[in-house]
Amino acid sequence: MRRTITSLTLLFAVLLAAPIGFARSPVASAERPGSFAIGLIGDFPYDDLGVAQAENLIDEINSRRLSFVIHDGDIKAGSTPCTGDVYFANLDRFNRIEDPLIYTPGDNEWTDCHRTGGDPLERLDFLRGIFFPTDQSLGERTITLNRQSDAYPENVRWTRGGVTFATLHIVGSNNNLGRTPEADAEYTARNAANLEWLHESFEAARKKDSPGIMIAIQANPGFELEPDDPERTGFNDFLAALEQETLAFGRPVVLVHGDSHYFRIDKPMYSSETGAHVVSFTRVETFGPPDVHWVRAVVRPGSSEVFSFDDEIVEENVTPAP
What's the pLDDT at 126? Predict the structure, then answer.
């Protein structure tokens, strides 16, 4: 919940006016007609404490009225063995969320499995089979998703209120580039698929006359890094294509990601040709341990900004100061 007097006072007043027995928060319904709210989460759970915090977060999300929730990857710590029970436990956790849940994979659940003796490519196949078996989202209430292909079922697209949403499978650890020849081959194929899906998603948004587009990935792609930095080379193609598509689209574009556990909402894109600030582009990085909270995005298709954001602090997950 948001920790501001104004928000709590408003919520209390609306609850007093609500019918007895109404269990879901009416906050989203207080927005202008046609608007809707969604939840943005990621980077959890990492340990036993994280599991408890995840349950607190899910309880709070389930008390709200959201159109859907996006989890932007990393469902375990990189040092946690990539055993099947970890994946199935998180699948059950996702399906406890009452609203549709859309998930894009992180590096911890496959790329980094070599750290604990696992085979990253085998774990990637396993992950795809568990989390993306049909055209339906996860969650208790599902929505139909447009999946890119059988080879890349994790890349999805959907619309709500005319606004376009998409996920791209782009992960930390330099997007799996530069570790082994096998990893480089996997990166090359997936990178090509991601660039194609990015372009198709913007094309779909233009054809639908979408007022805005939101794209979710797992990795922090390193806006602040130099292109030849070894922590960014796996993201250069994506960032160049994202800039080109954003400038051509000319309407609000939001990139959601996790990975570096640093909550922020900023505008880090500058034109590579002119140096001009691309003000139509917004980056949202979701919370990560030790801060297991969430971001509430309100989408107003009829407004010029389209997207607005609020940090939602789960009180039970606040770590006391030492």
Answer: 97
Q: Alpha-carbon distance 256 to 71, whole Å?
A: 10
- CB neighbours (10 Å) of residue 185? 12
pLDDT in tens, 309-322: 999 999 999 987 67
CA distances from 83 to 113, 188, 191 (A): 10, 26, 26
Domain membership flag for residue 170: yes
Residue 189 lies in a domain: yes
Domain count, the chain: 1
Whole-structure pTM value = 0.89
**What is the amino acid identity at position 11?**
L
- Helix axis angle, 120-131 relative to 181-207, nearest 10°? 30
Nearest Cα to Cα of residue 102 among 260, 285, 256: 256
**Which strand ranges, in their side-by-side order, compose the sheet holding 36-41?**
101-103, 69-71, 36-41, 294-299, 307-312
The answer to whether residue 247 is domain-embedded is yes
**Statement: residue 290 has pLDDT above 70:** yes
* Structural domain that includes position 262: 23-317
User: Which residues touch 132 (CB under 8 Å, ≥6 apart)?
Assistant: 147, 153, 154
Tokens representing residue 117 in the block:
């003796």
Residue 211 lies in a domain: yes
CATH number of domain containing 36: 3.60.21.10
